[in-house]
Amino acid sequence: MRTNLKKFLWQWRGILIAAPSVTIIVLLMRSIGFLQIFELTLLDRFFILRPREAVDDRIIIVDITEADVRKVKLWPMPDAVLAKLLGNIKAQQPRAIGLDLYRDLQVPPDYENLVNLFKTSPDLLKQEKPVEPGYQALRNLYASTPNLFGVRKVAGNIEQDTVSAPPGLKYPDQVAANDFPWDGDGVIRRFYLTVPVTKDRALYENEATLDGLGVKLALTYLNKEGIKPEILDGSQQKYKLGKAVLVPFNGNDGSYINAEDKGYQIFLNYRGPAGTFPRITMTEVLENKIPPQLMRDRIALIGASARSLNDLFYTPYSIAQFGSLQQMPGVEIHANIASHLLSAAIDGRSAIQSWSEPLEWLWILAWAVVGAALAWVQRDMGVTKKEVLLLSTGFVVAGGSLIGGSFLAFINGWWIPVIPSLLAMGGSVVAITAYVAKTAKDIRKTFGRYLTDDVVANLLENPTGAKLGGERRKITILTSDLRGFTATSERLPPEEVVKILNIYLGYMADVITEYKGTIDEFMGDGILVLFGAPTGREDDAERAIACAIAMQSAMIPVNEEMNKLGVSPLKMGIGINTGEVVVGNIGSTKRTKYGVVGSQVNLTYRIESYTTEGQILISQSTLDAVKAKLRIDGKKQVQPKGVKEPITIYDIGGIDEPYNLYLNKQEELYFSLSEKISLQYAVLDGKHVSDSMLSGCLVELSAKGGKITCESGIPPLTNIKLNFLIADESGKPSEDVYAKVIEKKSDSGGFYIYFSAMPPEIEKMIENLYKSISSGH
């Protein structure tokens, strides 16, 4: 159990570290209100995008338009006009009438006549203010209409912002508050069930609250349905209203951070944008052009949409169209409030609810885990278009699921965090990327030039990655070697040898890494590369051949570097073989290396030993594993040491789609020497030089080889060491020259060779000799 737990913690450590850490950072950002505006903006988008609901015909708006204001000619409208308007509405027998107009003073019918009256009768100024007939008619209508409700502005500066209720309405039975709670961006997303009334604004003893206008209208309507508010379990906070349970807004609900929550506030579940409710104009009502039964048993709300009257507000629907802001008349906000309560109490329509803070934290953490998991499980992927597309698709699907799921939840009345969740998911991706980069940085920096990411990842990310042992699998093995570099290195200081090797191996490592090969080992000037371990792919053999061609092509810039150092060009041969081997961690508990063992490795070395400069030889098994078309420049049968049966090896000159890599091979031209050069040679068996010295003569010369006549022939692909018998002051033979017997047939006996390594003096001599004899042809 403990071992399994340890393995689990190690395997998923990135997620276990990143997800909680990112979640804490996101929650801290949220706690200071940094994300609030983004969350509220997305909430508004959800309002705009959700399906339109059925029209609530229990409410009708008597709309005061700009045309109505021009028709009346005076504003505020005279008391007589208002009395007529309310009288015509009352005659329709609505259940409740809401007057969303401030009306704390009487309004005479004609200001100009009143001014003239005061001018001609200045004593009137000393008398009690006269009462106009229209004002008295309005007061009489107030008194005779108990289901008529006016408004009072409670909140604000008591001397400048508050407005008294219309005189004549019974307080508080016929008076409601006209205040809305504003968010920081000026949008109304909540409403007052009851507005707090401070002592300095109370109109009677112990007055503490006043119902909002939409609330007053809805409760009056519901009262006739037999529905009244009920306190739940003795709580002063939660009420049952028909099918609805009313829960007060808390300053930290949803995305809000320390929002103003005085009074009894509730999230307003708008019915729709401006223009959602049925309406009739004031002029139509005054002229009694009201359809029969239009207002009977309904809520009638009188208010202004005229822009000149400045009773317009921003709501979640204000940004319904890009580049324009659509405001909603205050009377329609009151209609939405009334509809909210009626629909919830009678129809069971969902209110907008939010989760508790702990549940929201868990939700955000869950999405942080999703982001971390997507990045963690894909951390070793490559950068091919297919792999990038797959990874991107995963994130798009996850993000789309979050937004889509949250939108469906909103349609059903739940407001759940989206922006923090998206931020946590994206932040976890960044955190995992940074974590993987940080933990692997030093090791990758040291070994990344010589090992592929697969091997490093196997050691870093797998708790058993360093465990001793191996597994049997079929892989493609590539080995390369510099022809004659041992002899060259013997003539150079060790520091120069290391410098040369670092240049050469650096170029080769870059190529090998590009083709996703695993560099198993550097053996002096030789390289052992694995394709298919630790990660196997279908195109291992093809990538090995493409890599080999690219390595040979990279010898051009390598030798340009050698030329700058004054060193003879390097010559490389490559052998490739495919077969079943054992791969894994080899060694002891104190020292371990990721490696490969098996007879197929030895066979690869044997194949490579047959190569000459710039040559790539592959086995039959590798050829069979390749699906791409190859350019084969030749083939031969050989009998490597330790192999019972002869094998066929192929000389590769290029590979077609999708790599399109080719070697540039020139035909070797041989020219006869005017004077033979005597020499002696010995056969090489591996690294061992035969004790038998044989005599011969160099009779033909090419740019890279020549023809030797001798008493006895030597099989092709044999390595030899030779010394030219050139007379000089000492009379000693030349320094050692190394060569390989090639398969070119000789008609007059002897054999052809390919020079592997020569001392600089001999190389210069051969080069000059070749130039002299080739220039004459």
UniProtKB/TrEMBL annotation:
<dbReference type="InterPro" id="IPR001054">
    <property type="entry name" value="A/G_cyclase"/>
</dbReference>
<protein>
    <submittedName>
        <fullName>Adenylate/guanylate cyclase domain-containing protein</fullName>
    </submittedName>
</protein>
<feature type="domain" description="Guanylate cyclase">
    <location>
        <begin position="476"/>
        <end position="608"/>
    </location>
</feature>
<dbReference type="GO" id="GO:0004016">
    <property type="term" value="F:adenylate cyclase activity"/>
</dbReference>
<dbReference type="Pfam" id="PF05226">
    <property type="entry name" value="CHASE2"/>
</dbReference>
<dbReference type="InterPro" id="IPR007890">
    <property type="entry name" value="CHASE2"/>
</dbReference>
<keyword id="KW-1133">Transmembrane helix</keyword>
<dbReference type="GO" id="GO:0009190">
    <property type="term" value="P:cyclic nucleotide biosynthetic process"/>
</dbReference>
<feature type="transmembrane region" description="Helical">
    <location>
        <begin position="12"/>
        <end position="38"/>
    </location>
</feature>
<keyword id="KW-0812">Transmembrane</keyword>
<dbReference type="GO" id="GO:0035556">
    <property type="term" value="P:intracellular signal transduction"/>
</dbReference>
<dbReference type="Pfam" id="PF00211">
    <property type="entry name" value="Guanylate_cyc"/>
</dbReference>
<feature type="transmembrane region" description="Helical">
    <location>
        <begin position="414"/>
        <end position="437"/>
    </location>
</feature>
<keyword id="KW-0472">Membrane</keyword>
<comment type="similarity">
    <text>Belongs to the adenylyl cyclase class-3 family.</text>
</comment>
<dbReference type="InterPro" id="IPR050697">
    <property type="entry name" value="Adenylyl/Guanylyl_Cyclase_3/4"/>
</dbReference>
<dbReference type="InterPro" id="IPR029787">
    <property type="entry name" value="Nucleotide_cyclase"/>
</dbReference>
<feature type="transmembrane region" description="Helical">
    <location>
        <begin position="389"/>
        <end position="408"/>
    </location>
</feature>
<feature type="transmembrane region" description="Helical">
    <location>
        <begin position="361"/>
        <end position="377"/>
    </location>
</feature>
